[in-house]
Specification:
Radius of gyration of chain A: 20 Å
Order of helices and strands of chain A: HHEEEEEEEEHEHEHHHHHHEHEHH
Distance between the termini of chain A: 27 Å
Largest interface: A-B, 53 and 53 residues
Strand order of the largest sheet of chain A: 1-2-6-3-9-10-11-12
Oligomer: homodimer
Number of domains of chain A: 1
């Protein structure tokens, strides 16, 4: 789910070979484009002026615009789903293992696009374009801060819909995404059933359950403890990066399974000769690694954006109906539901519940389990193992 | 594991009937006693003067002092394992369902005792007596703060050992405890194998694994983000109770399984008519409940004590040997190992690993699973279901 987890993985020299495979041989190059709307009205009814989001595409849109695929990104991700910006990039986009020429989502055949969400976490990442609390409010000339309206997964979908409209795309052959990208996938399939030929939600549910609601609050809590957060008013001042780093540390650990933690780190010390028994500043390797990952990721992220994303995820119920059952009934597309039995963020029971409700609502559902020790993150890092399932699903 | 979770449970009107059963009919009354040592030298080699801890007992020590049982407490617990201080107490000690006249641990037969640990979390609880950072250093007349030496599970055991010596107890018929109490149980059995006739570690491992080490750091992190923590120097000033409450909130959620969260709260709002979509201050019920539980518990707790407890747990490997295998080989007592398959703090795989290493080291091991949706907390709240197993184990 979480892009910054790659720094953890790198620190631990544990990046899976499948994850890097996409960088080999022929590199698919891409670029960040910007989609701008003079105005955009949120679900909450607020009209925002000059709304911009970044987007990327891989492959070529055909003449009748019938070969488009939409990839929706996860909580800490961006539209950089595949390829590299330049040959020398350290790593390609996060799903490069399954998106590219000849890959499961074959860019020789499909036009694959992905869009940075509103309130994207990486507001300070030069490769992200987003509109959110850190953006300048054209009416005041100052950043919105916490005056930015609360946005929902449905708002992210509406932005993508407007971009699709602008490109003349009437239907996606596939809408897919991991974690929060899976939420957007469900929302697309329920909100625009005639525009979604196939849906592939990965490591996600049809709604945020109580457990996820509570964990999102736990993730976000350190930000508000940081005195630099200052009620969200920190632009032009020192940002609350200690709180934000702590929040990102929680996410990094929660998004992975204990088997990963134990096999990777054991009881190793952060520094040779510095026994953690000898001081509060002497740490175990796993503590130091998670701290470093959180701090590194905080540099390109925005704390208020984190809070808005947490809220958007908490509020999610697919299809905006009174109940999940009603919302999922709107879905016509066949669903390829991919999840990890070791996922602690969207645990398997909730995935089964969504699958059952999808079926009860009339949808065709195929469910596949990922193997791995990364837990939730296997839906980002370990997708190559299901490439044949994705290929078959697209061929149907 | 965590006593404050009872306030969550109460708020949610979900206290299990087994948990309250002990309060009915005949109430067993107890009182807090104080054990004081003129000096105590920690494992780290620091000599502390005038070390005090609280303790309780239930039942009567027989003439030859052969009927003693020791109960070791969990992270946020105290020596109040059973009974009430007065008839009107809202609830009895946490394991009252299995300790009392005629119960699994029968106080008509056994003398059951329990001891507040050093650096006990409840430093501001009138029913806890402990020595730690919040205590006055007799050499300076001021609280130790972060100058208090790092202590380990072995130090907690040594304090208990000195109390046992003072009572003339040469051997315990049983040493038992949940979570951190289970760590103390393993340490007792490995450190003083001739003093432990039987060991019953509940919801715990023989060592802190990487996953637990990391989560203990996550739990503790909010404290240091609170500006009132001030490097641990806050005595006589405003304590870092916002950070401490946040820490306790994480523990409360982590100590319970998602089935509990989802079945208890669903997507209910904290206040009728206040849709969480309409403001950052409008919350879901589970968020508000966990916040309240953390804040309530913070009032009787001390933030530095939390940090010291986290460190003590992180450092734990049973028996103080080079490896867990070596440490567990020292154990002679038969072991009744009770755990929950839904425990997210000490997950089942680690319990199996400890059991396998115990057996490899020559110990006799019986393993039992608890049923329930509380996850880790089932080892505190749901013990009545294993009363017959405990009875049989004691009869052997």
């Amino acid at each position: 789910m979480f892009r910054f987890a790659r720094s953890v993985a790198l620190a631990a020299a544990l990046v899976s070979s499948t994850f890097l495979a996409g960088a080999s041989a022929q590199t698919m190059l891409t670029e960040k484009k910007t989609f701008e709307m003079p105005s955009f009205t949120t679900q909450s009814g607020r009209a925002l002026k000059s709304v911009k989001v970044g987007w990327e595409s891989y492959g070529t849109l055909n003449a009748d615009k019938s070969n488009a695929i939409l990839i929706c990104h996860f909580f800490s991700g961006s539209s950089h789903a595949a390829g590299k910006y330049k040959e020398t990039d350290a790593a390609p986009g996060y799903w490069d293992a399954i998106i590219g020429p000849g890959k499961a989502i074959d860019t020789n055949k499909y036009f694959v696009m992905s869009v940075d969400t509103l309130v994207n976490l990486g507001a300070n990442d030069p490769n992200v374009v987003t509109t959110g609390p850190a953006s300048i409010n054209p009416d005041t000339g100052k950043p919105y801060g916490m005056d930015f309206p609360i946005v929902q997964i449905g708002d992210f979908v509406e932005v993508q819909k407007k971009l699709a409209d602008s490109l003349g795309i009437k239907k996606f052959q596939l809408v897919a995404g991991a974690s929060m990208g899976g939420l957007q996938t469900y929302e697309w399939a329920a909100r625009y059933p005639d525009m979604v030929a196939r849906a592939m939600p990965v490591i996600s549910f049809g709604e945020a359950d109580a457990n996820l609601i509570a964990w999102l609050d736990i993730w976000a809590s350190p930000i508000k403890l940081d005195p630099n957060w200052n009620g969200g008013d920190y632009y032009g001042k020192t940002p609350p990066n200690a709180g934000l780093a702590s929040a990102l540390k929680v996410v990094t650990l929660h998004a992975q399974h204990w088997d990963w933690a134990n096999k990777t780190f054991g009881r190793k010390w952060a520094k040779e000769g510095e026994n953690p028994a000898n001081g509060h500043d002497k740490r175990f390797l796993i503590e130091q690694t998670l701290d470093n990952a959180g701090a590194a990721r905080a540099k390109t992220s925005d704390a208020n954006h984190f809070l808005y994303l947490a809220k958007a995820n908490q509020l999610f119920v697919a299809g905006g109906a009174g109940s999940l059952e009603e919302g999922l009934k709107k879905i016509k597309a066949p669903v390829l539901l991919i999840h990890s039995p070791k996922d602690l963020v969207f645990p398997p029971g909730g995935v089964d519940d969504t699958a059952a409700k999808l079926k009860a609502g009339g949808a065709s559902v195929e469910q596949i389990q990922l193997k791995g020790d990364r837990g939730h993150l296997d839906g980002v890092l370990s997708m190559k193992q299901v490439e044949e399932n994705i290929r078959s699903f697209l061929a149907k």
